[in-house]
Amino acid sequence: MSYLDNSAADIHDVRVNLRRALDAADITSSEPEISDDGLVEVLGLRGSAAARLCVLLEAGAAQTGLPDGYEAAGLPSGPTMSTAQTMAVRQDLERLLGGMPSGAVSVGIHCERPVIHLTGMDMSGAAALTSLIRSALSDYVTTARDLHAALQKHGLEPGLDFTPGVKRLKITLGEASVEAGAVWASILDGEPVPEGDLECAEYPEAQAIADRLEAAVEAATDGGCMEARLLYYCERCSKDSVLDFGNLPLDVARRLVTALQSAEPIDVSRRTLTNRRLAKGI
To answer: Tens digits of per-residue pLDDT, 245-268?
Structure first.
């Protein structure tokens, strides 16, 4: 399910979709669970995380996207709220969830600190909660989708084993072949793709491609950073060399999309990018 897809066949799919939405929004809690009576519950939300959830729900209901400063707020790792503050957040959650089949919102004590529980959510209630979170994250979801389209446009997808997604308020990437990394760098910096079989490149050559791609992204995004870590070929496990990309902040991902959309396509007809998903059985 890409881009926080909200389709669901049963209560188990609903639970997974809600977990992915909470992960995408950097809302820390225990895993959403299914209770003995077949309802979804989210237990152990710290007051600070619940406060962030309130911001998400307000933005989702208004379809305005997240307000400025939300990403940098750092509330999940902030100080523990007092019981009175947590009760106030609970009231905000109840107000925002009012009219939705969302079950009950309660405050409990865990490890001597107040936490909030969302319990008794049926499929429609949990799906509605997930939809509001997704709506608040619309800028992230759209950027992930646009980055995927830009990579497809340049013929890079066969060399990638990831589809851009959203997690912890970042655009998530993954691994790519060394050759795909070389082509990606050439698209951005206009330099030719190195000759030869890059899938079997020696370590210095493969590392040079990783360094070049990092530099090309930095130049194309006005100082943005995309880590391209070389995982070199391992004889013991017979794994090909790959580049492992770090996740991107939203603003860097947006600038990267713009750079890829405006870049001239390069001729890769003489190169056959290995379809990494088929090779790995994905």
So the answer is: 999 999 999 999 999 999 998 876
User: In Å, how far from its chain's centre is CA 137?
Assistant: 10
Does residue 71 contact residue 36 with C-beta atoms inside 8 Å?
no
Contact 183, 191 (CB under 8 A): no
CB atoms within 10 A of CB 76: 18
Quick one: CA torsion of 133, 137, 141, 144, rounded to 10 degrees?
Answer: -130
Q: Which two tokens stand for residue 193?
A: 């793709």
CB 226 within 8 A of CB 216: no
Long-range contacts for 221-224 (Cβ within 8 Å, ≥24 apart)? 221/252, 221/255, 221/256, 221/259, 222/255, 224/248, 224/249, 224/251, 224/252, 224/255, 224/256
Indicate if 36 and 130 belong to the same structural domain.
yes
Pair 105, 208 in one domain: no
Domain annotation covers residue 6: no
Report the relative pairing of strands 170-172 and 165-167 from DSSP bridges: antiparallel
- Provide the H-helix boundaries in 63-156: 83-96, 123-136, 138-153
**Range of 118's domain?**
11-136
Report the predicted TM-score, pTM, of the whole model to 2 decimal places.
0.84
Q: Do residues 131 and 173 both lie within one domain?
A: no
Number of domains in the chain: 2
Answer whether residue 164 is part of any domain. Answer: yes
Q: Could you read off the pLDDT of 153-165 as tens digits, one per residue?
A: 999 988 898 999 9
Torsion of CA 63, 127, 145, 69, to 10 degrees: 50
The helix/strand/coil state of 168 is coil
Among residues 55, 27, 34, 31, which one has the least CA distance to residue 43? 31
Measured in whole angstroms, the distance separating CA 93 from the mean position of its chain's CA atoms is 25
